[in-house]
Amino acid sequence: MSPASRSRGGIVAVVLGVIITLGLSCNGFREDEVECEQAVNRLKECCPSFITQQLDCGYSERLDCSDNVTGRQYPALSLDESRCVQSGGCADLVANGICERAQRARPTVTGTSSSTPSRAPTEPVCR
Hints:
With about 130 residues, the chain is mostly helical. The chain has a domain of about 80 residues. The chain has 5 helices and 3 strands, in the order H-H-E-E-H-H-H-E. It has a 3-stranded antiparallel beta sheet with strand order 1-2-3, with no helix packed on it. Helix 2 packs parallel to helix 3. The radius of gyration is 19 Å and the shape is elongated. The termini are far apart. About 10% of the residues have low confidence.
């Protein structure tokens, strides 16, 4: 491969990386949502009975009539928990109970709306 071909390949890789990053940020995907989804894929690979549909990785905001944010719902797995799951070996995830705790994880809800009370986060997935 010629030096010019390698240079073009490197430029293409950088341009693709920038486009993907901009695409994610412009579409409103948050880092905690993306990391949580990647952790769910890892849990699906490693945990035999893991039900992916039960783990909510979405972020959302509740708005009042004036479009003021009155509450937020964060992904069921925090950034640290998502990264812990992604870096763990399958045997470790199962043996250390991470599969079970992740299955029980629920989104953290904050806010002052009387229709949806604030809820404390569930037990830590990674200890």
